[in-house]
What we know:
By secondary structure, this protein is α+β, with helices and mostly antiparallel strands. It folds into 2 domains: about 100 residues, CATH 2.40.50.140; about 190 residues, Hypothetical protein af1432, CATH 1.10.3210. Helix content is about 40%, strand content about 15%. Strands 1-2-3-5-4 form a 5-stranded mixed β-barrel. It has a two-stranded antiparallel ribbon with strand order 6-7. A hairpin with a 5-residue loop joins strand 6 and strand 7. Helix 6 packs across helix 10. The model has no long low-confidence stretch (mean pLDDT about 95). One fe (ii) ion binds next to helix 11.
Amino acid sequence: MKKTQFIKDLKDKDSVESPFLIKFSATAVGKNGKPYMNLVFMDKTGEIEGRVWEDVTAYVGQAVRDAFVLVEGRCQTYQGRRQIVVQRLQILREDEVEQKDYLPESDLDADRLYGVLLDYVSSIQDPYYKALAEAILRDDPEIIEKMKRAPAAKGMHHAYKTGLLEHVVSITGILDSLSRHYGKYLDRDLLFLGGFFHDIGKIWELSYDRVTDYTNEGKLIGHLVMGVELIDRKIRELEAQPGKLPGGFPEEKKLLLKHVILAHHGRLEYGSPKEPQCLEALLVHMVDDLDSKVNAIQKFISQDQTPGRWTAINRNFERYFYKPDWAIPPNE
Ligand SMILES: [Fe+2]
Ligand SMILES: [Fe+2]
C-alpha cells in the first residue's frame, strides 16, 4: 500500500486516508460511559494524536503499539493541536507497507558516518585503547550492525534511526577540537574512547525494530553499566588472545575509561553513580549535554506547526523558541 499522505503535511479539516504506524494506544471511558480510544500515529515525518469514538470494541487488542493501520478520518485542531478523528481503522500486514516510510531516520548516511567513526578509531595512539576500540567498533559485526541503526533515545534527542551514530560522531568531532584547544592538559585517546563508548550500551538498552522502547536489560541495568560491562568483556577477550595487546591491559587506563562512561550523565540524580572526577570525564559529560540539547531544540523547532515566529511551549525546556527563517514554511 503506497503512502501518499505524510503527517507533517496534514492540515486542519483535511480528510485522511493513509496507513500509519501506531506508536501508542490506550482505551478510556468517556463521561457518557462509552469507551473511546486514544492513539498516537507516526510515520517518518512525525507524530499525530488520534481519537476513535465509534466501534472501539472492534479495535481493542488489534490497534496496538507497533501495528500498521489504514486510517480513514479527518484532521482537526483541538486546543491548538492537530489530531485525527478516526472514522475507520483497518489493520495491515507488515508486507503490505514499506517499513522505511514509518520510522524517522537521520539525514546523514549511516555507512558514511561509520567511515568517519572508523577514521577516528584509527587516529588513536595508545596501543591498548586502540586495540579495544578496534575490537568493538571495527571487528564486532553485531555491534557494527546495531550502531548503524540504533536511535540515541526514545524521544529526547537523536530519536531516530542512526541517531546514536550521528550523536557519537558529532561528539567525537567536538572532542577533537577541544583536545587541540586544551592540548597538553588532556588525554585525547581517553576523550575519544569516552565519545565512542559513553552511550554504546544503548544498542542493547533500546529496542528499535519498530517503535523505540526500552528492553528489559535497559530498564533493569541501563546503558552506563551496560557500557562498562562491554568494556570489561572485550578487555578479557583481548587478553585471552595472544598478540592482541602489548601486555596486560593497564589497570589505570581501564578504570579511567570506565569512569568516563559512568560519569557521563554528570550528576547522581541524572543516573551517574559517580560525578566527573577527571577533565576528560567532565568534557565528555559537557559535550554530551551540549550535543543532545542542540539536536533536541533543532528538531523541535523544525517540527513545530505553530504559525509565526514562535514555537509552541517546549515542556522539556519550559520555554518558547524563536523560529529563524529556515523554520518558516515558504508559503507563510
Ligand atoms: Fe547517556
Ligand atoms: Fe550521549
